[in-house]
Write a structure and sequence with these properties.
This protein has 176 residues and is an alpha+beta fold. The chain has a single domain, classed as Alpha-Beta Complex (Nucleoside Triphosphate Pyrophosphohydrolase). Helices cover 24% and strands 31% of the residues. The strands form two sheets. Strands 3, 4, 5, 6, 7, 8 and 9 form a seven-stranded mixed sheet that branches. A two-stranded antiparallel sheet has the order 1-2. Strand 3 and strand 4 form a beta hairpin. The longest helix has 13 residues.
Length: 176
Amino acid sequence: MPGSSAPEEWFDVVDDHDAVVSRATRRKVHARGLRHRAVHVLVFNRAGELFLQKRSQSKDTAPGAWDSSASGHVDAGEEYDACAVRELQEELGLHVTAAPRRWLRLPACHETGQEFVWVYRQEAEGPFTLHPDEIERGGWFPLGEITRLVSEQPADFSSSFRLIWQKLAAMGQVHT
């Protein structure tokens, strides 16, 4: 963030096969539309509801949009699974001892912001401790309600989440 004393984030830049070819700053990766890596974690409770987060208005992409339970960029030199564990901790305060189950892989494309994405599935009941710089609020949603909202109000959701939901529905993985 401008004026922030936080160190610049570095990402691995990858080719069209998700092989690392270089490293660049977050700013450069996003400005140039370079391929990079991200994770999305979908957290379900025992009732079968999905926890969604409403992104902070200060986010540089999709501010204020509903999104996966936890998501984030894979840092330079980091593996997807380690990133999923880190993002659950950072965004939801959820400590897990192992990476959640890999569920779906998305290619880098316009909808993902040129991110190769691994989508993970995690079970947890909460309550969660939401990171205020990342998340405005969150809540549990029945799957049918998510399907209806994504269909009726697509602009309320991040493009990555809409693509994830579409792919999972096509695979018969989100029963409503």
